[in-house]
Structure formats: structure tokens, C-alpha cells
Amino acid sequence: MSTITLITGGSRGLGRNTALNVARKGGDVVLTYRSNESEAENVVAEIQAMGRKAAALQLDTGDVSTFADFAARLKAALETGWGRETFDNLVNNAGHGDGALVTETTEAQFDALCNVHFKGVYFLSQTLYPLIADGGRVVNISSGLTRFALPGYAAYAAAKGAVEVLTRYMAKEWGSRGITVNTVAPGAIETDFDGGAVRDKADLNTQIASITALGRVGVPDDIGPMIASLLEPDNRWLTAQRIEVSGGQAI
């Protein structure tokens, strides 16, 4: 039986790349999108073209009040598309960037970052726990910025740091059901994150490459395949770990 992986924010960037790599490994995918339905449906079509099943559901991971309704819609989609009441893997990927120095961060910026990157991950995982199959996998996406500091990302990195702590507690509490929980922390990646800064600003790109052991910044294909491999049965004994995938940035 094929596995079913739920990927939040799976319509673009690292989420999209992860979804496609899960499908390439023979898995089925449910992905979420916040507002761009057509973009999400394009990813669904790409996965279906590989011969795998896929579905897209709308979700704002920063709005906890919608999670119960989302769980009901997810359960209906699982029953309709797969004849199942559970899914196997959860990838908490959805997020956004909004940089500001500590002295200039507004409460609205702080709340928006924490709602999506920490509170949303916490309560969405809680809500979906009954729908995760025994022996499943959870991957929470963090950031290299929890290890090294780049001025302007304090609130974002702090929220990601909270997720890394949460990961260990989830692994401890959910291990009795055979569910593994790990963190993947990408370094700088060429996506549209934070307005595409790493991808589009040549000076920034060059600067990051100069402090990275492998001599370049990352691309989505450096991350998606790694996350997909982490969901494989062979990784059944790996849990409560922070795995940085940065090409050796700032070491």
C-alpha cells in the first residue's frame, strides 16, 4: 500500500519540491495552499502524471480556528481518494519570511511569524494526531538561522527554534505509537522566500556561497529529496533529531 504524505505549503518552493520527490519515490500526496489554488492544482497534475494520487486542500496555517474544519475536509478527502481514514506522513513546511531588526520588529510582524511557524505547527500537529497512522513520520521544517545569526531574522529564527524544541517533545510523547518526529533545517535556498532575496540578490548569493563549505547556495533539489528520503521506512530508528541541510554554511 502506498504511503500518503500531507505537506503544508506544498504548492511552491520547498514544499512543492518535496511533494514531487515523494511522488517520485512512489508515494501519494495531499498538499495544502493558502490562496493560490491554480498553483496547487498544477502540482497535483504533475504528481498525477507520475501515476501517483494527489489532492490539494486550502489551509491558512496561521489561523488555528480553521484547523478542526481542515481535519474534517482532510478526512473526507482520504476516504474519497484512498478509502482510508488515516495518512502516514506529515511535513510541517508552510511558512513565510519577514525580516526586521530586533529594535524595529512590530508586534504584528512578530505575531504573524509565530502564528505560522510555531503556534500553527503546534496546534495543527495536535489536531491531526488522531489521523496519523501508527508508525508514521513527522518532519518539521526549521532553518539554519537557529544555529547562526543573520541580523533581521530574530523573530523568524526564534519561532523556528521553538519548533526544534517542540520536535523533541513530540518525538517523546508520540513514540509509543511508533511515530518518528524530526526537524530538517535548510540553509539559504534559492526560492521566493523573503521575496526571493537569496535567489535574486547577486551580492547576497555570493556572500552566502563564500561561507558555505560546498561553495554555493542551496536549491530546492538539495532539500526535497532529503525530506522524501527521511520519510522512507529505512529511517524508522531516527527520531528527535535536528538535521541541517545547508551544504556546510557558516561552519
Written description of the protein model:
- With 251 residues, the protein is of the alpha/beta class.
- It has one domain (4-245): Rossmann fold (3-Layer(aba) Sandwich).
- The protein is built from 8 helices and 7 strands; from the N terminus they run βαβαβαβαβαβαααβ.
- The chain has helices at 13-24, 37-49, 67-82, 107-128, 154-174, 197-200, 202-210, 220-230; strands at residues 4-7, 28-33, 54-58, 87-92, 132-141, 180-186, 242-245.
- Strands 3-2-1-4-5-6-7 form a 7-stranded parallel beta sheet, with helices on both faces.
- Helix 1 (13-24) links the parallel strand 1 and strand 2 (28-33).
- The chain starts with a strand and ends in a 6-residue tail after the last strand.
- The model has no long low-confidence stretch (mean pLDDT 96).
